[in-house]
Amino acid sequence: xxxxxxxxxxxxxxxxxxxxxxxxxxxxxxxxxxxxxxxxxxxxxxxxxxxxxxxxxxxxxxxxxxxxxxxxxxxxxxxxxxxxxxxxxxxxxxxxxxxxxxxxxxxxxxxxxxxxxxxxxxxxxxxxxxxxxxxxxxxxxxxxxxxxxxxxxxxxxxxxxxxxxxxxxxxxxxxxxxxxxxxxx
Length: 185
Fold this sequence. Notes:
By secondary structure, the chain is an alpha+beta fold. It has seven helices and seven strands. The chain has a single domain (2-176), classed as Gcn5-related N-acetyltransferase (GNAT) (Aminopeptidase), CATH 3.40.630.
């Protein structure tokens, strides 16, 4: 079963290890340019130094990370999302699920807008953005989107609680009955 959870700040260092194990093309697609391990360590050090401005939603399968959304606070009321799904797990709706959950999280914390930068040639992320109602703006080979976020309401708060409880339940089931992964994916 695929579960999602937000990392505690003490786990942020694991983000560097996960990025480093990604293949060259995935790294380049995410960052826009090739990133070596030292660059990733430097990036994550900056995140850890300003941990209150960064959050991570991870998707896990059998205890291993298969996708992340890095949520960076860019202004007091705006967040920027960076989405990655491991090559082996693409095409299964994982990014869609994480994006829905991250948008819900941002709304429930009072953010008013969401920003995403997309590489011009990254069709899957552009499709994901338009699927979620984001309007893409392209100029000089760069594509970005900025989407207003509606305020939280009883529905969004309840939905977040249900998602978190579902994920805790799924994690407990996985530990108790490992074969459920194969039955219920």
